[in-house]
Amino acid sequence: MNQHMLLEPGLNGAFVRDSFGALPAAAAAAIATAVATPIATRLVEQPSSQATLAGRRLAVKDVFDVKGLRAGAGNPAWAAEQPIATSTAFAVQTLLEHGAQWVGKTVTDELTYSLAGINIHYGTPSNPAHPQRIPGGSSSGSAVAVAAGHADIGLGTDCGGSIRLPASYCGIWGIRPTHGRIASNGCFTLAHSFDTVGWFARDGALLTDVFNVLAHSNTQALPERVMLCLPDDLITLLHVRARATCATVFDTLSHHFEVSLLTSASLAPETWAHGFRVLQAAEIAQQHGAWALRHLDSFGADIRARLQAAVNVSNEQVQVAQRVRTDAIRTLARIFDEPDTYIVMPTLPWIAPLIGASGAEVDEVRVRAQQMLCIAGLAGLPQVNLPWTSFDDAPLGLSVIGARGNDEGVLATARAVHDALACPVDMCSSA
């Protein structure tokens, strides 16, 4: 299908044409009915909470059901076989009920099985932070929509890093919540034990507001004592220029928080990343392998090769990878055993590759990035990417990871870290 028929013109190539600018009548009517329902018959909450997101523009990755539409998942062959949704996904419905304003559906990598943000059918959304570089995927359209100011909230999903990586590449906030913390009803699943609903915003306050709405939670105040840990095992993965900046940042944070260096061999990023890839591939093959093999010609070369490899993962490989996952969960649980302890780390080894980089180069970047992204993924932990710094005019994000279920603490700490880095020590101490 012609790319121009699939995309909404302009807008950094972030939006699909289907239902851009207006919800289908069926979905709009369902939202109106829900909002008009008396609060007492819904959740016990303050009436004003229904307007928490009033006026905030919402962009939604094309993997969520919207009543009256098909979820295309970045592949026209897949989209053609999907039924028209008879209900709207929980996350979309909830945000709209709380006042968010629909903008449209956004571009995603094919079946969300990529971190590049390159789609042979829809093209590559233009990264507003650096148009010569890729935006990152698979939630590329939602990240670009927020970074470019076309939306305030960008709803997406994160399986292997599809929120955190594009948030870093585009210089915005992004969250992967604790696995299972946000209901994924009505959302395409790539690998069921890894997929999470996530989202982007241009500031930490809105990122938190969205969490509070979706999780029915409340903003958490930062305790007096917070311990920040920097894993020594990850420093060696960084580009040499990022290493130097990372050391400076950790010194700055030591003026605001307790800090600690996790000694070498505390983590096993290379082993963990391999285990993650095996388990993810096995789950993908289980759910989508048969369909993918019948439609291989509909995929771009990189994703086609990944799908072919996924169906060849053996049970023996899965068993070994499961033991790796168990070890990762235990290791990270020990780190977070002390309350109010968080890992702080650059989200990725380096900035986004240039558009036109070879497939081998993009894949090499993907493999290195997975060694940092797999930490939260394997253990189902919450992670927030926050804007941090730039190199060659391209952003690189910083991340905060916390204990399973402590999303509120991760959000509060990420915002405090961002404020600390934005405020010189002498100014903060005299304030």
TrEMBL record:
<dbReference type="Pfam" id="PF01425">
    <property type="entry name" value="Amidase"/>
</dbReference>
<dbReference type="InterPro" id="IPR036928">
    <property type="entry name" value="AS_sf"/>
</dbReference>
<dbReference type="GO" id="GO:0050540">
    <property type="term" value="F:2-aminomuconate deaminase activity"/>
</dbReference>
<feature type="domain" description="Amidase">
    <location>
        <begin position="305"/>
        <end position="411"/>
    </location>
</feature>
<protein>
    <submittedName>
        <fullName>2-amino-5-chloromuconic acid deaminase</fullName>
        <ecNumber>3.5.99.5</ecNumber>
    </submittedName>
</protein>
<dbReference type="InterPro" id="IPR023631">
    <property type="entry name" value="Amidase_dom"/>
</dbReference>
<dbReference type="InterPro" id="IPR020556">
    <property type="entry name" value="Amidase_CS"/>
</dbReference>
<feature type="domain" description="Amidase">
    <location>
        <begin position="31"/>
        <end position="215"/>
    </location>
</feature>
<keyword id="KW-0378">Hydrolase</keyword>
